[in-house]
Amino acid sequence: MSTFTVSIGRNIDGEPMPRERWIKFQARVEGTIQDLHDVTVFFAGRGGGIWEGRYEEAATWVFGWSESLGLPGEWKRFLDDLAYWADQYDQDAIAVTTGSTRFVEAKGKPARRTA
């Protein structure tokens, strides 16, 4: 299984897109992720960050998916769909990060707590 992160921002040319449109944009991207065959969403969050020196609201999803278990052509279709939503919502891009999932196992010691 691979781990993926998809992040979007609210700004268009340095200004926030209208709230209703921002909500719909988030829903479209989340739906595109949910449409992947056998996807597991680990985290979906909203917050903010800096892009090109300006603060903007952002939404991020972290999910697990195995391209080898997906349907033929699914990864390309996923990226094409994200590109479509970027265009429809006047975005330069949508960030997609891919990586291998690695589980770091506990060593059997009690967790160290600080006051």
SSE arrangement:
Elements: E1 2-9, E2 11-12, E3 15-16, H1 19-34, E4 40-51, E5 54-65, H2 74-88, E6 95-100
Antiparallel strand pairs: 1-5, 1-6, 2-3, 4-5
Helix pairs in contact: 1-2
Would you kindly provide a written description of the structure presented here, covering whatever features stand out?
With 115 residues, the chain is α+β, with helices and mostly antiparallel strands. It has helices at residues 19-34, 74-88, and strands at residues 2-9, 11-12, 15-16, 40-51, 54-65, 95-100. α1 (19-34) packs antiparallel against α2 (74-88). The N and C termini lie far apart (37 Å).
Q: What class do helices, strands and sheet pairing give?
A: alpha+beta
Which CATH first-tier class would you pick?
A: Alpha Beta
The tally of helices reads 2
- Proportion in helices: 25-40%
Give the second-level CATH assignment, the architecture: 2-Layer Sandwich
User: How many beta-strand segments?
Assistant: 6
Oligomerization category of the chains in this entry: single chain
CATH topology: Alpha-Beta Plaits
Whole-number total of structural domains: 1
Shape: flat
| Biggest β-sheet strands, sense, barrel | 4 strands, antiparallel
SSE string, helices as H and strands as E:
EEEHEEHE
Biggest sheet, strands in spatial order?
4-5-1-6
**Terminal-residue CA separation:** 37 Å
Question: Which parts are unreliable, with pLDDT below 50 for 5 consecutive residues or more?
Answer: none
Radius of gyration of CA atoms, rounded to a whole number: 17 Å
